[in-house]
Amino acid sequence: CPASPWLPAALTYLQASLLPLLSVPTPDVMAEAPAEDRPRPHLNLRMFQERLKSRVVGRSLVHRLVTTSTMKDGSYEAEHTAPEGTLIFAERQTNSVASVKGRTWDSSAGQNLLFTLVVRQDDTRKLLLPLITPLAMVLAVREEGVNAWCKWPNDVWVGNAKIGGMIVTQARKLETDEILPHVQLVGVGININEEFDKELVAKDRRGSLKDFLHTETPRERVLASFCNHFERLLAAPKEDILAQFTSFQRLVNRVVTVYPDKKEDESTKYRATITGFSTFGTVYVQAEDGTKRELSAQEVSVRPTEIADLIDKPLLLMTPVPEILTGKWTNELGSVMRLEATADGNITGVYLTRVGNTDKENALVGSWTSSTRDGGAVLQFGVSWSKVYEGAPHSATAWSGRLYFNRETGESSIKTMWTLVRDVPEQDSWSAWLTQSDTFTKVSQGGGGWEERALTAKG
User: Fold this and answer.
1) What are the tens digits of pLDDT across the range 162-219?
2) 310-364: per-residue pLDDT in tens?
3) How far is CA 249 from CA 151, 154, 352, in A?
4) Is 434 helix (H, G, I), strand (E, B) or coil?
5) Rounded distance, CA 180 to CA 196, Å?
6) Coil, strand, or helix at residue 41?
7) Under a CB-based contact definition with an 8 Å cutoff, are residues 84 and 54 in contact?
């Protein structure tokens, strides 16, 4: 009989409700882990599923607190008919699998993303996985505001630091090593909240989102974003995949060191210039002797010969605060201000209040300091008022608040508290101060000279 339409939703609910209870590792596995490496609070499944927009990828989830390797778990799940897009996630691995034989992906428990996807693609589409996987990783972490790029064949970098890696293999039976036709395993590791020693970062070129954003990032958000992008890319034309991948890599026309068979053998390595990529994930190179070759991700590993020239772009994608602040703003009462912000933290502008009967503009001065949390800023500004209506005493207002900027929509707001002080006799000083909140919304971006942007009474 046909499957009931409510069955997938019911299974998803059961996963969210029961997996935290079913994912408890056995005592002997936990005993192997030092106290500092024992898992922290595990993945918030509800948050992950609320952000998951895919139909298949990530909908079937195996969640483990401790495992030897999610790739080995993936082989077991694939052999036992795991559905397309099954995600095996671990808080900690004791014997991870890396793209280069003999290496492992080290990660503290509960800090990062360690997972494997079971993918069922035909012989043609599976060749795109070495492009699709790092591309989905880059798109997911760029949504967090870091300027990530793809380093063929297996890595994702920010600046000159590796924050993620992936491996694509054919699924095999664990006991017999027999190939499972049309089943691939995609292993992914992304450093999210790990804090690396600065000397280790400089030596091994490793980093995490926290190293660049200086705050913790919800792992569930990045994981869901990866699944969403991965599923979309699985169905995309190969030409579109190649175009996107190429736009996020920096190795074309650069000299690299090629290590055949992924072995760091000084006797077999050679230097070559990368000239391009194929739609099936292979790379075209030209060796120093003029020989042209096409290399696959399974055959070689490559390293840039010069790292410094790969970090000529900003590490963060956040819009500069001066660009956000500069422009026309209005509050709930219809008062209008135009701000001009500079990179050294200064704010100047003019303010036209709608409280009172006046068309007079008043000078505004202030300062800001940036927040690396989300690209916003903490700021303060003040106005010394001329008479805003006939007979009004001299007064001044000081605002302090927070600039918020939504990277997804481009919308921005300034939420403040203000205090106004009026020039009154000492015996009436009880009435000198007023305080209230204000929210300003961006109306337009500034442009041109300041004189060209002077306010008028009509705003």
Assistant:
1) 999 999 999 999 899 999 988 999 999 999 998 877 666 666 678 899 888 877 889 9
2) 555 677 776 778 888 999 999 999 999 999 998 788 999 999 988 866 678 889 9
3) 6, 12, 48
4) strand
5) 38
6) coil
7) no
Backbone angles phi, psi at 143, to 5 degrees: -65, -20
**Amino acid present at 277:** F
Q: CA 181: distance to chain centroid?
A: 34
Distance of CA 5 to the CA centre of its chain: 34
Which segments within 358-432 are labelled E, that is strand? 362-370, 377-385, 395-405, 412-422
Q: Which residue has the tokens 């024992």?
A: 38
Cα-based distances in Å from 283 to 234, 260, 279, 301, 444:
20, 13, 9, 11, 45
Given a contact cutoff of 8 angstroms between Cβ atoms, the answer to whether 190 and 222 are in contact is yes
Give how far Cα 428 sits from Cα of 425, 431, 433, Å. Answer: 5, 6, 10
Q: How far apart are CA 128 and CA 296, in angstroms?
A: 11
The contacts of residue 87 (CB under 8 Å, 6+ apart) are 57, 58, 60, 61, 62, 115, 116, 117, 227
What is the four-CA torsion angle of 24, 26, 31, 36, rounded to 10 degrees?
-10
Percent over 70 (pLDDT), the chain:
77
The CA–CA distances, whole Å, from 453 to 24, 352, 440, 456 equal 63, 13, 18, 9
State the Cα–Cα distance between residues 440 and 152, nearest whole angstrom.
45
Q: Which tokens sit at 193?
A: 């909240």
Look-up of token digits 């998951």: 52
Residue 62, C-beta contacts closer than 8 angstroms, at least 6 positions apart: 73, 77, 86, 87, 88, 89
> What b/e readout covers 436-458, taking b as 16+ CB neighbours within 10 angstroms?
eebebebeeebeeeeeebebeee
| 3-class secondary structure, 275 | strand
- Three-state secondary-structure class, residue 86: coil
User: Contact, 179 vs 189, CB < 8 A?
Assistant: no
pTM of the model: 0.67
Please give the Cα distance from 378 to 371 (Å, whole number): 7
